[in-house]
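Q: Here's a chain of 201 amino acids. Please give me its 3D structure as tokens.
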Amino acid sequence: MSLAIGTTALLLAGCAVGESSSVGGPEKEGSRSAVGVVDSSMSIEEGLRRFREGLPIVSELELGESSRAALVTRFVRGLERSDTNDLRAMAITRSEFAYLYYPTSPFTRPPTVQVAGLVWFFNIQSSQTGLTRAMRRYGGKPLLYLGHSCSAPPIHEGLNTLWSTCALRVSNPTDTGDLGLFGSIIEREGRFKFFSYANDF
């Protein structure tokens, strides 16, 4: 996963992601400030401490699935039913990001070091945009799902494994072939959730 974070990103430090734009789970984490106070001298440790303020501690990916195939099938069913609540529940939450993903991610060390708040901000924004576009185009419609594949080699980070470059194989009147409707999937200790819904639509 790569995130292009320019110097203008610091201008976003005080922005909040409203509840309507969050793909997080039942914590409604998007109602908090997505970034918090950021300055050029903030350490990774301090940035993570601030990012975790007020968040419940979690030890596993909650409301996920026991396999990648089961998660993608659930995603397709949610899209066909326009079930935004379940689609959001399948995505990594702010707490899961803070306690399970970020500490062993590449963003905690050079050359891609970046504070947790900014990484989360850009991920949640692109994820919500992708989910909105997928819902607008395919929500409530039969996809005639045949299967899925993730062509990029999995990336292992601590206890986490991430799959990307994933596509759905469908066969319906408007689409035949592969559709990239989500960005990446995270697995931790046998539980699978979507890390991002970012897509090219």
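Q: Can you summarize the key feature?
A: DSSP finds five helices and seven strands in the chain.
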